[in-house]
Design brief:
Homodimer. Heterotetramer of two MnmE and two MnmG subunits. By secondary structure, the protein is of the alpha/beta class. The protein is built from 16 helices and 13 strands. It has helices at 34-39, 95-107, 117-124, 130-141, 145-155, 158-182, 193-222, 236-253, 278-282, 289-301, 317-328, 346-352, 368-379, 394-415, 420-438, 444-451; strands at 11-14, 24-30, 42-43, 54-62, 65-75, 86-92, 111-112, 224-229, 265-268, 271-275, 305-310, 334-338, 358-359. The strands form 2 sheets. It has a 7-stranded mixed β-sheet. It has a 6-stranded mixed β-sheet with strand order 9-10-8-11-12-13, sandwiched between helices. The structure holds guanosine-5'-diphosphate.
Length: 458
């Protein structure tokens, strides 16, 4: 998709999900002719004479044939999502009706929208900045309270507002330094180096905080990859089943939801935990011990959190301590679980207390709530506030890292005999990377890359 294609065309697409069996479908148009084109197939009031943000009942006709009774919502540009005229036609949700209506609109001069084109227009017309447009996609894809919250935050401006202000301050310095260049050999300094340094220091701090938030943001957006590990027969698959079965029971309690898509995930207070390599856990353990240990290690490395299970009827405290030391070497947070607590005597419990484990009985479902609390505690999400600014997008992370690198060079340049033209170049480079996030700097390739991942109709 090239931006020069986004001309004056009026685009149309089904905005609701195709094939879903809801009662209503919404067909959306955007562009200068949106109202005019709709009006030519609509029988009811003259849409061209109606106010913005009004809804009108009428019929869609192909000559004299009535295709459907519909409601038409009007949004007169620039007071719309795309900032252009937007029309939404609510039809009955029949594949046949949708096709007929869209074909009629195409026949009367609309063009079929490409993936993400509505949101692309919103961006190009200044309704959203780039990171907000990306958040629209995240919001639509969000499937937990946490991912919804992060996307909503970003869509409402999030950190891009913060970056915009800092970028403007930096632009100011870049122009002062460029002015110095105009004076060539004369030794003039328009840009106060101390002020520049403190500005860069400030931007540095903000960006470092944003970069540090990525891990947290990513966890909230995509879920926490968890591995359940431990020797054969400690009860890993029993625990996994206990957790997942409870989750399925919860989900099926919500009336009308038939979500069989939740594979190996559980949701604890809005945060998704994804169990990885569950196939490996469920396999029968007939592999030789050494190979099993090696495989478990590889598996654990992929996790953001490890649940390590022990069977006190198999292992002594000393053996358990050795295994814990091994796991600790990976530097991945882990929860120590003593399973089969139903078989444990009080004396044995006391013996294991030095490990500060969580005691569970996977078989009887005891201790599962404590385990869940411990999982939440380990990912430290309880402390994330609704309005915390979190980076969740890898493209943003990369741009932030590149900005930091450029800023470091500027900082070095101020204190060292580096000529103003190099200094200016490094500041421009930092500005470029900052601008990549909000879309102040874009290329067709970048836009294509972002918007082609949207569905048609978004
Ligand atoms: P895995 O090899 O680690 O996946 O272990 P399994 O989940 O297959 O469990 C091994 C054996 O321990 C099975 O016979 C389970 O029924 C039993 N088991 C698992 N959890 C418990 C528990 O909490 N208490 C008792 N008594 N037995 C358990």
């Amino acid at each position: 998709m090239s931006t020069d294609l986004i001309s004056q065309d009026t685009i149309v697409a089904l905005a609701t999900s195709p094939g879903a069996n809801g009662a209503i479908a919404v067909i959306r148009l955007s562009g200068s002719q949106a109202i005019h084109i709709t009006n030519s197939i609509f029988r009811g009031k003259d849409l061209r004479e109606q106010a913005s943000h009004t809804i009108h009942f009428g019929t869609i006709r192909d000559q004299n044939e009535i295709i459907d009774e519909v409601l038409v919502s009007l949004f007169i540009g620039p007071n719309s999502y795309t900032k252009e005229h937007v029309v939404e036609i609510s039809t009955h949700n029949s594949k046949y009706i949708i096709e007929r209506v869209i074909n009629l609109l195409l026949k009367h001069g609309a063009r079929a929208a490409q993936a993400g084109e509505f949101t692309l227009r919103a961006f190009l017309n200044g309704g959203l900045d780039l990171s907000q447009a990306e958040a629209v996609a995240d919001l639509i894809a969000s499937n937990s309270a946490a991912s919804h919250q992060v996307a909503m935050q970003q869509m409402r401006g999030g950190f891009s507002n913060q970056l915009k202000g800092l970028r403007e301050d930096l632009v100011h310095f870049a122009s002062l330094i460029e002015l110095e260049l105009d004076f060539g050999e004369e030794d003039v300094e328009f840009a106060n180096r101390d002020q520049l340094k403190s500005l860069i220091d400030h931007i540095h701090q903000v960006i470092r905080r944003l970069i540090a938030s990525f891990e947290q943001g990513n966890v909230l957006k995509n879920g926490v990859p968890v591995v359940i590990a431990g020797k054969p027969n400690v009860g890993k698959s029993t625990l996994l089943n206990a957790l997942l079965n409870e989750e399925r029971a919860i989900v099926s309690e919500i009336a009308g939801t038939t979500r069989d898509t939740i594979e190996d995930e559980i949701n604890i207070q809005g945060v998704t935990f994804r169990f990885i390599d569950t196939a490996g856990i469920r396999e029968t353990q007939d592999i030789i011990e050494a190979k099993g240990v090696e495989r478990t290690r590889e598996k654990m490395k992929q996790a953001r959190l490890i649940i390590y299970l022990f069977d006190p009827t198999q292992d002594t405290v000393v053996e358990v301590q050795q295994q814990i030391a091994d796991v600790a070497q990976l530097s991945i947070p882990f929860v120590t679980l003593i399973n089969k607590s139903d078989l444990l005597s009080v004396a044995q419990r006391e013996e294991y207390a030095v490990l500060s484990p969580v005691y569970i009985s996977a078989k009887q479902g005891a201790g599962i709530e404590e385990l869940k609390e411990e999982l939440l505690h380990q990912v430290n999400v309880a402390n994330v506030q609704v309005d915390d600014v979190l980076v969740t997008n890898i493209r943003h992370l990369e741009a932030l890292q590149k900005t930091l690198e450029s800023l470091d060079r500027v900082f070095y340049g101020i204190d060292n005999p580096v000529t103003s033209d190099f200094l200016a170049m490094d500041i421009r480079q930092a500005l470029y990377h900052l601008g990549e996030i909000t879309g102040a700097v874009t290329t067709d390739d970048l836009l294509e890359n972002i918007f082609s991942k949207f569905c048609i109709g978004k």
